[in-house]
Amino acid sequence: MDAIITLDIGGTNTRCALFHTEKDDPVSIEKVNTSVNNEPAINRIIEVVEKSWPKDRKVVGIAAAAPGSIDVIKNEVILAPNIAGWQDYPLGEILEKHFNTKVLVNNDARMAAVGEWKRGAGRGHNDILYYTVSTGLGGGVITGGHILQGSRGIATEVGHIVLDDNGPLCGCGKAGHFESYSSGTGIQHHVERKIKEGAATILKTAAPSSREIAEAAKAGDELALEAFEIGGYYMGIAVSNYLHIFNPTCVIFGGGVTLSFDLIMPSFRASLEKHVLNPLYLKDLKIALAELGDNAGLIGTYEYMKQNV
Amino acid sequence: MDAIITLDIGGTNTRCALFHTEKDDPVSIEKVNTSVNNEPAINRIIEVVEKSWPKDRKVVGIAAAAPGSIDVIKNEVILAPNIAGWQDYPLGEILEKHFNTKVLVNNDARMAAVGEWKRGAGRGHNDILYYTVSTGLGGGVITGGHILQGSRGIATEVGHIVLDDNGPLCGCGKAGHFESYSSGTGIQHHVERKIKEGAATILKTAAPSSREIAEAAKAGDELALEAFEIGGYYMGIAVSNYLHIFNPTCVIFGGGVTLSFDLIMPSFRASLEKHVLNPLYLKDLKIALAELGDNAGLIGTYEYMKQNV
After folding, report:
1. Which of A58, A65, A127, B45 is the most buried if burial means most Cβ atoms within 10 Å?
2. Measured between alpha carbons, how far is A104 from A75 in angstroms, rounded to an integer?
């Protein structure tokens, strides 16, 4: 019997799952710190794969999801800003040589999209937009039953489209991106700017966390409410753009900011209805929260490997 | 031997081509006015197809490209604003019943994209952005060797993405779309607004045509030059958005405004380089003008029918 091992590599933690190929769900999940005491991340990754390795099965492939730009042809990390030394980093080749099995590497948000498509909120749909809204804003797209990757694999940088050329600075250094309005960081930066300008608020610090802002909003703080409202408004602009581009049947939101989605949803929906070219784009459109939580990436890479093994 | 008939239906003219399926190029092309004296367009369309019908071959399919939103599952025109009465119009069914052969209907700009992909500037590429820049701004996308259509076929409304929520009005009634900056109409409207504001110009009328603006620009008129420069600047923003979304290897521009592309290209290229997330998106990227001219739609629908027959 065959097995597949998948990795969801993050800046802080790496999770590793063992799958038996006749089953949908992982047999085991291991979690380690990606880097301890500046040790190269690859050491911990190899260690956790070895720990997950089955005794009585053939591993037909290892599939890794990593944060950042991935060359899916070469299975190389082009740049993962949160992992030291991972620039033009041949992760696939290193794992392939060490474990002597097929290795695939892909972007973590795209793999979460595949997970939600195959086993989560997108089941049964062929045209899906998936957004992960947390510190940053990433995602993946399924179109006509295909995973959109682009020529090298650096497609679906969905957070990095300009919504206003004179807008606030994005984490990437450019201005007015979707991410700079609607990510957790975007919401925080709005509050910080307004506090600097002297806005009234019950928030006590000059740079409150997303959680503090959400709590203030729930307590009725106007500045905090406004920050989520603006995030939702621009999310409506961005998603309407994407509806015009992709005409999907399903839009899925994952990531930490979805915990505060009751604060975002009213302005998001109003803005979506305002900006959409034609009500047809909203007809029969499912808008849903992600269902697989932390396991979306592990399950997505498993499904991705099964398609390619 | 088999034959395929294709139609490129426009608001003013309709062109009809006969193809022998063992050949790439049309055997004949007929052209008629789409509507004369308020006669329904379908009469002229049926007439021109009958005229093109081969005497000694079996017609295995008719493929029609039409302007507007097309339901590619039902082969119905959802809305073609330039053709009277074409709302929820079952063009495919009507032609199928009349000619007793398979009929496909799709969007004209998307079919031109397919033409350029298979036989024009996009040959050999699997990931292509195609823009037709004329009165409006439409296009099509090939991703991973697939034609992007969306769930119903109303995807790739590429001109209708918001670049600035407070921007100028678009032909569709929304604000700040790519089309409202970079189409021929967008460029005209910029000049009209500035003339109203009292800007100095050699242009003699309050609402000059695209051609007059291009001539004024070539004569050094600052307002005319500015209009093309702004069109190019926003085109750079929009195309960088699309590079981040699709990571293509080829970007193709067609349509009448490409006749003035020497006026647009400098600001387009500078803006593209400014807005792109990473130079990798521009590496090995072919940026080219369309090669098939008026025949792109007729050839694209032929290739589309061959894929689906």
Report:
1. A65
2. 6
